[in-house]
Design brief:
This is 2-oxo-4-hydroxy-4-carboxy-5-ureidoimidazoline decarboxylase. One of its GO terms (biological process) is purine nucleobase metabolic process. InterPro entries: OHCU_decarboxylase (IPR018020), OHCU_decarboxylase_sf (IPR036778). Its EC number is 4.1.1.97. Keywords: Decarboxylase, Lyase, Purine metabolism. The structure is a single chain. This protein has 120 residues and is an all-alpha fold. The protein folds into 2 domains: 54 residues; 42 residues, no CATH class. Helices cover 62% and strands 0% of the residues. It is built from 8 helices and no strands. Helix 2 packs across helix 3, helix 3 crosses helix 4 and helix 6 crosses helix 8.
């Protein structure tokens, strides 16, 4: 998809963002939260935005309003981040003797996949 209604190719004003068709808005902004079209679709319904800060706030709002399953889904889309969390957790085990219940509940396949992402 290519947005054809721009006054300057590649640069959008807030007014132009507010006038985008919903599918154009989703196409343009779905990568804000790791290719999550559902959040971009919800934010598209909040137009018109009064400012760039208001646009950013809407994405933050929907991200933080997700239930635990939705948040976990977003986090699972960032394997590098997960690997760093696991590294930090393993480094802190010297002072914290309780194992992480989420890590402990992972299958061996999930742990192997996590290790693979962590090594790359």
């Amino acid at each position: 998809m290519y947005v054809t209604s721009l006054s300057h190719p590649g640069i959008l004003t807030l007014a132009e963002i507010n006038m985008l068709r919903s599918e154009e808005f989703v196409w343009l902004f779905d990568s804000v939260i790791e290719n999550n079209q559902s959040i971009a679709t919800r934010v598209a319904h909040d137009r018109p935005f009064s400012s760039v800060q208001n646009l950013k706030y809407r994405f933050h709002h929907y991200l933080f309003m997700l239930n635990d399953h939705g948040k976990k889904d977003i986090i699972m889309r960032y394997p590098d981040f997960i690997g760093k969390l696991v590294e930090q957790e393993s480094c802190s085990t010297a002072t914290d003797t309780k194992p992480d219940p989420e890590y402990e509940s992972m299958t061996s396949q999930q742990r192997d996949k996590l290790a693979k992402y962590n090594d790359s």
